[in-house]
Amino acid sequence: MLAKSMLTKSMLAKSAFLRACRCLPTEQVPVWFMRQAGRSLPEYRELRGEGSMLETIACPEVATEITLQPVRRYGVDAAILYSDIMVPVHAIGFGVDIVPGVGPVVAQPFRTAKDLQRLRPLEPTEDTSYVLQTVTNLVAELAKLHVPLIAFAGAPFTVASYLVEGGPSRTHARTKSLMCSNPQLFCALLDRLGDLAIASISSQLTAGASAFQLFDSWVGTLTVDQYRRFVLPTSKRVFAELKQQHLDAPGIHFGVGTGELLSLLAAAGADVVGVDWRVQLNDARQRLGNNVAVQGNLDPALLLAEWPVVAKQATDVLARNKGQPGHIFNLGHGVLPETDPAILEQLVGLVHGYRYAP
Amino acid sequence: MLAKSMLTKSMLAKSAFLRACRCLPTEQVPVWFMRQAGRSLPEYRELRGEGSMLETIACPEVATEITLQPVRRYGVDAAILYSDIMVPVHAIGFGVDIVPGVGPVVAQPFRTAKDLQRLRPLEPTEDTSYVLQTVTNLVAELAKLHVPLIAFAGAPFTVASYLVEGGPSRTHARTKSLMCSNPQLFCALLDRLGDLAIASISSQLTAGASAFQLFDSWVGTLTVDQYRRFVLPTSKRVFAELKQQHLDAPGIHFGVGTGELLSLLAAAGADVVGVDWRVQLNDARQRLGNNVAVQGNLDPALLLAEWPVVAKQATDVLARNKGQPGHIFNLGHGVLPETDPAILEQLVGLVHGYRYAP
By the 8 A CB rule, do B294 and B284 touch? Predict the structure, then answer.
């Protein structure tokens, strides 16, 4: 069993995705899509029906199948665990639901120091055993396809924003207010959420995932100073502890609207930084330096246009990288539910077929 | 009458706001707030009651009073006409309503070339005579206070996004899709909306407003290439035609999340570029060069924090400008409805009292 797992590991290490995470050259540009598993796929909608998302995630057979659907359909270079950034806080009983068409909703938002008590440490093998079962299933299935699995968790700031706001927010005003008015409490909150992220990702990696992505989706709403002072220290700790525990698992750091923060996202310890469509990939490269890989950066909204438009934009993204090793093609944010899967299929073909002049 | 108006004009030209628009030195940093008139003010809520916003705008006495309320209460350096970016398209009968808690809603969104016929030219003296009456009232009232009035209109792209989406949108997917799939139609749409913006702003300036702001609030959702190719040409034409007709009225160009677009917003012909909180003011200066003034850039969400937090952040903004002429203090986006007016009052005092070391 151990020998087999070692063999799988060394085979996966040669995959284009994991090599690109390490800025190593690859024959073709690897590609996967955030939210590749999910609402845009008819086979997903059929399988999931009307049930709650958190219940679906808690069912390893279904979550395994959902994770595999886009790998089979599109031939993407990586699978990402079907889960949600709110799973760990839900699992420790903070009182979270994911409401269709709304997003995560928190019954009793985080308000005072007393609420810290509601954030006990995560015991992955007990609290989220279903996640680990899904990962175990997936690693076995994906080994046959030579496809690595990406573990993930929400970054402390983004999860905190849901806990403090009580749900999705355009302004994040309560979060920013708490951050600036009571930095001590805010940092204590981020610290607990950092522990949750570490425990959750670490357990997924131990169960066999090959890489991880830390989603700090809403961090682009902050000023540079706020990020540096209130967010960077905890995110740094998350990457450092995960690196110490899982030296061979590259870490991806992602957020939207982070043009001013890119170098700080790398400074947090990421091997790969996600870049949305607002920043041109060559500019992102310049801000990040040569030792950090980039992931992105096609606008998911554009996938609702016709194929020639998508093809042109995707080619632009590829051309801007100029063939430099360390580019994982992806969208700048998740696949929109209205996206036609046929477009994504064509897109994978285009990326895999793209060649840089030698 | 003419002599009086000339006198007013030359007195206003000495105002800190108009001098800062020209990058001329001022004794104190001028300050005003986007949405300074509106939902955060109890006197506004009392005056407006539950009526429709478009109806309120169409009532010059009420719109005049609403515009003056924050000038009296806060002592800001500029008044901005109480109106909405959808007023011109509404006035020519495109079928727009502003729904409380939602925003602009379009009954029959823009879909095909046939919809261009629904965008006839604006005849300001007929279609929006109420706006011009409000401006005339305001110019008389504001002359007594030596406060200039800012005219405004929505920029072609942002107005187009509402017409195409049918309402507010997080992704602007339909707009981007139309832009890339049918650039000819999209540019024809922007062209008509450019004409509306020119006609609307020009009529407000003729009626006595001293400066204007072109709101391209959602343009930060575009890639740099999309902006350059599909938006910049029309915005350039708007500024150029207004400059030709009203040489002495400085133009402000504003959008959110425009870090990558700042130099292009200036290239459109703006004298002043609005900067949100994501970009540090000194970085914005670097991208814009010395001949363009900056407006911003405090995060409005922070105004929900306690005064010491607001004071620190505002001082940071001021310090980052290092006393360079051509800074108009403002928020990075509009005042949130929950904002305590007392905080804004203190903020105006802080900005006016701030002095750079000589």
Answer: yes
**Out of A176, A280, A301, closest to residue B299 by CB:** A176
Q: CA-to-CA distance for A49 and A175, rounded, in angstroms?
A: 34
pLDDT at A2: 62
Cβ atoms of residues A317 and A297 within 8 Å: yes
Burial of A127 (0-12, 13-18, 19+ CB in 10 A): buried
Supply the pLDDT for residue A174.
96
> In one letter, which amino acid is A8?
T
B357 conformational bin, left if phi > 0, alpha if psi -120 to 50, beta if neither: beta
Concatenated DSSP letters of B99-167: ETTTEEEESS---SGGGGGG-PPP-HHHHTHHHHHHHHHHHHHHHHHT--EEEEEE-HHHHHHHHHHSS
Q: Is A284's pLDDT higher than 90?
A: yes
- Tell me, yes or no, if the pTM score tops 0.90: yes
Kindly identify which residue of chain B lies nearest to residue A333, measuring between CA atoms: B171
Look up residue A219 and give its two tokens: 């961090």
Q: Retrieve residue A109's tokens.
A: 């938002």
A111 classed as catalytic: no
The ipTM is 0.94
- Catalytic-residue membership of A84: yes
Task: For chain B, give the longest Cα–Cα distance.
Answer: 61
Residues of A with a Cβ under 8 Å from any B Cβ are 171-174, 176-177, 180-181, 220-225, 257, 259-260, 277-280, 283, 299-302, 304-306, 309, 312-313, 316, 336, 338
Chain A positions in Cβ-Cβ contact with residue B299 (cut-off 8 Å):
176, 223
CA distance B279 to B54: 34
pLDDT of residue B358: 76
**Dihedral (CA of A66, A42, A333, A109) sign:** negative
- Token representation of residue B55: 């109806």
Distant-in-sequence, close-in-space partners of B72: CB < 8 Å, separation ≥ 6: none
Average pLDDT of every residue of chain A: 96
Instruction: Tally helices (H) and strands (E) across chain A.
Output: 17, 9
Residues A83-118 pLDDT 10s: 999 999 999 999 999 998 899 999 999 999 999 999
Q: What are phi and psi of B41, to 5 degrees?
A: -95, 125
Which residues face B128 on adjacent strands? none
Give the per-residue pLDDT at B2: 62
Cβ atoms of B137 and B64 closer than 8 Å: yes
User: What pLDDT is attached to residue B7?
Assistant: 77
φ/ψ of residue B339, rounded to 5: -65, 135
- CA-only gyration radius of chain A, Å: 19
CA distance A76 to A310: 17
CA distance A165 to A184: 18
For residue A50, what pLDDT band results from cuts at 50, 70 and 90? confident
Q: For the stretch B278-307, what's the b/e string if a residue is b when 16 or more beta carbons lie within 10 angstroms of its beta carbon? A: bbbbebbbebbeeebbbbbbbbbbbbbbee
Cβ neighbour number for residue A356 with a 10 Å cutoff:
11
Residue B294 near residue B321, CB atoms below 8 Å: yes
Nearest residue in chain B measured CA to CA from A316? B225
Instruction: For chain B, give the percent of residues with pLDDT over 70.
Output: 99
Per-residue HEC secondary structure of A142-155 comes to HHHHCCCEEEEEEC
